[in-house]
Every structure is written in C-alpha cells, then in structure tokens.
Inverse folding.
C-alpha cells in the first residue's frame, strides 16, 4: 500500500465507526461481525502494517469507504450529516486524547484486561462491550467536548446499545489516532481530495 492508501484505510476506519454508531442510534442494531471487526482494532499492538490493525484486510470498512467517498464528492443528497459530525468529533477528540499521558496510561493498562475478557467471552459479548464503553467513559468522556449521539431514544436508552455506541466511538478514535500517525491531517481532505477520490473510485464502491 502507498502512504496515501494507508491513510485512506485508517480514515475509513473512523468513517466506519461513525456509520455504525448512526445505525445503532436509529435502529438499535448492528451485526456482531461489524461490531467485532471494529472492536478488535483496539486490541492490536505493534502492528506490522496498517491492514494488520484491521485483521489483515479492509473488507469490513466498506461503509466507511462509501461514506468517505460521499464526503469527498460533496454528494449532499447521500451524505448522512450525523455520521459526518461524529467523524469530525472523533478526529478532534483524538488530538486531545493524544496529549493526555495520564489517559493514555489508563488505556494501556485496561486494554490487556479487556483482551483477557475477549478470550473468555468473545469480542461481541456484552461483557467486552461494556468494558470498552467504560474505558471510553473514563478517558474520552472526561473532556469538555462530548459527542452527542442523536437517534431513537428507545434504543439509545438501552444500556447495551449505549455501551456499543461508546465502544464504537472509542474504536473510531483509535482509527483516528492511526490516521494521524500515518501523517493524515484534516486539511488533506482539501489538498489531497483529487488523489483520494481517484483511489476510492478505483475500488468500485
């Protein structure tokens, strides 16, 4: 993969998390496969490549790629504005998170314990999702800036759904961190727009 392709993959991870959060907020459901694909990114340490973060392939990022393509094409008719707002918020919160050594330390101590839970219960289990959500609350939710998720309150008021939302937002912030580590910057959405569009269109989304 070229450096730009790696950046697009990581950024698609942010958009994928946003798309799943939006779907959860409005329907109360996402597939276990979609959930586990994103949650497993939180547990990857010392990856050898960008794709290693996503389990070796980017097949689970299709909705993220499509959403990113809609943004770059400025396709307002097919652009879920709530999802885009979540993306912008996750990119901003990641920058704040990266400057807080104390919160990064909390995450580094808790994630191995979550990994042990995964071995016992599986990634899509309520136990693991709740632990990821609690980690989000103890780190990202301590900032003044909060992500307000809008949708059907019948679903958002359910503890299990709320936990999945927080866990997915944390996974999205993990992808945002990867994107920035790979050299991604928000202004690239303007200055590299043409090159990014070429890469995404070549995927025949």
């Amino acid at each position: 993969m070229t450096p730009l392709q790696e950046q697009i993959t990581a950024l698609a991870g942010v958009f994928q998390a946003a798309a799943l959060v939006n779907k959860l907020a409005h329907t109360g459901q996402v597939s276990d496969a979609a959930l586990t694909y994103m949650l497993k990114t939180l547990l990857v340490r010392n990856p050898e490549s960008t794709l290693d973060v996503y389990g070796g392939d980017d097949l689970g990022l299709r909705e993220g790629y499509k959403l990113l393509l809609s943004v770059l094409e400025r396709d307002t008719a097919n652009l879920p504005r709530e999802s885009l707002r979540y993306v912008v918020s996750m990119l901003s919160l990641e920058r704040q998170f990266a400057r807080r050594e104390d919160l990064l330390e909390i995450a580094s101590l808790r994630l191995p314990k979550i990994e042990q839970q995964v071995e016992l219960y599986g990634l899509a289990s309520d136990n693991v999702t709740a632990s990821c959500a609690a980690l989000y609350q103890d780190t990202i939710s301590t900032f003044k800036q909060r992500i307000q998720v809008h949708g059907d309150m019948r679903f958002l008021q359910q503890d299990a759904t709320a936990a999945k939302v927080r866990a997915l937002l944390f996974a999205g912030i993990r992808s945002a961190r990867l994107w920035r580590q790979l050299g991604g910057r928000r202004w690239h959405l303007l200055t590299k727009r043409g090159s990014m569009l070429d890469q995404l269109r070549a995927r025949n989304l």
